[in-house]
Amino acid sequence: MTFRVTVLGSSSAMPTLKRNPSAHALNVHEQFFLIDCGEGTQTRLLRCGISPLRLGVVFLTHLHGDHVYGLFGLMSTLGLLGRRTPLKIFAPRPFDRILASHLSFFDSKLPYEVQWEEIDTRAHRLLYENKTLEVWSIPLRHRVPAAGFLFREKTPPLNIRKEAVGLYGLGIAQCRAAKRGEDVLLDDGTVVPNAELTYVPYRRRSYAYLSDTLYSPRAAELVRGVDLLYHEATFADPDKAMARKTGHSTAAQAAKAALKAGAGKLLIGHFSSRYPDVEVLVNEARNIFPATEAVVEGESYDIRPVMYGAQEQAAQDSAE
C-alpha cells in the first residue's frame, strides 16, 4: 500500500551546490511515476535507489529547461539499459516538436516507443488512470502554459465484515460477490445490502504537485482535501514583486494555497538560489500554515493510510 514521494530536485532555474532542478518520483503501490525531469535527474534516481527502468509514466508541468533538460539523457539511458515497454509522457505543446527533434538527432533507434500525450493546460481533466490511481491536470498561472497534477488513489477493494460471515452463513462465492460490491442473495431468498457485509479498509490518499505558478485560488480549490501538497515557494514575501514578474509564488502564498485547499501537509520547494538558507521561507509559510516543511533532496515523504476497522466504517456509514 505504498504511497511515497521522493524529492529529486528542489531548486528553481539555477541549481546550487546543494540543490538541483525540479523532479519528484512518486511510488504508488510499487508503480513509479516521474514528475518533471530537471537536469541530472537520472543520477539522483540512482542515488535514491530507484531504477530508471521502473518508471512507467512521466508528467511534465511545462517546457522550461529546469523542468525538462534531464529527460533527454534519461531517455537515452533507458535505451542503453534495454527498455522494451513504452514510455508515456504527458506534456504541453510544443513538446511534440521538441521530442521529434531529439529523436531525429540522438535517439532514432530506441528499443522502446515514446508515447506523447498533450496536456491542455487550461483544463482540469483526468489524464491517466489504472486500477489503483487517477491523475488529474490542474491549470496553473505561469509565464508559459503550465499544469500541476493531482494524484489520487482509487477507493481500495472492500473487506468483508467478519461478524457478517457468521451472522448470515456466507459461503465463499457469496463473500466474493460481496467484495465485488454486490448485494448478496441468501439461500432463503433474503437480499442483504452490501453495506451490511463489507467496509472500506482505509481512506484513499492523494498528492498534489503545483509548480510553477502564481498563487491560484482555483488550483487550490481543485486539490481540496489533499493529504500532501507540494507547492512552489520560489521567493520570500519581501520579493513578491519579483515573484509576480516571473510567474512564481512566495512562501506565504504557498501557505495560503495550502490553507485554502485544506491540505493535510505542505511541502515547499523550487527555491531561488538567492536563499542559501531556506529557513526564512519555512518560517514565513508556517506563520500561515503550521504543517509546512521545506523539501530535502533525497528524502522520501510517505502518505500513510488511515485504516478503517469494521466498527469505524459502520460509524462512518451511520454518520453519512
TrEMBL record:
Residues the entry annotates as binding Zn(2+) 1: H62, H64, H142, D212
Cofactor note: Binds 2 Zn(2+) ions.
Domain Metallo-beta-lactamase: 203-271
Catalytic residues (UniProt): D66
Reactions catalysed according to its record: Endonucleolytic cleavage of RNA, removing extra 3' nucleotides from tRNA precursor, generating 3' termini of tRNAs. A 3'-hydroxy group is left at the tRNA terminus and a 5'-phosphoryl group is left at the trailer molecule
EC number: 3.1.26.11
Amino acids binding Zn(2+) 2: D66, H67, D212, H270
GO molecular-function term, one example from the UniProt record: 3'-tRNA processing endoribonuclease activity
Signal peptide location: none
Essential cofactor(s): Zn(2+)
A Pfam family hit: Lactamase_B_2
Aminoacyl-tRNA synthetase is among the record's keywords: no
Protein name listed in UniProt: Ribonuclease Z
Function: Zinc phosphodiesterase, which displays some tRNA 3'-processing endonuclease activity. Probably involved in tRNA maturation, by removing a 3'-trailer from precursor tRNA.
NCBIfam families: PRK00055.1-3
Oligomer and partners: Homodimer.
Keywords, comma-separated and alphabetical: Endonuclease, Hydrolase, Metal-binding, Nuclease, tRNA processing, Zinc
Similarity comment: family membership: Belongs to the RNase Z family.
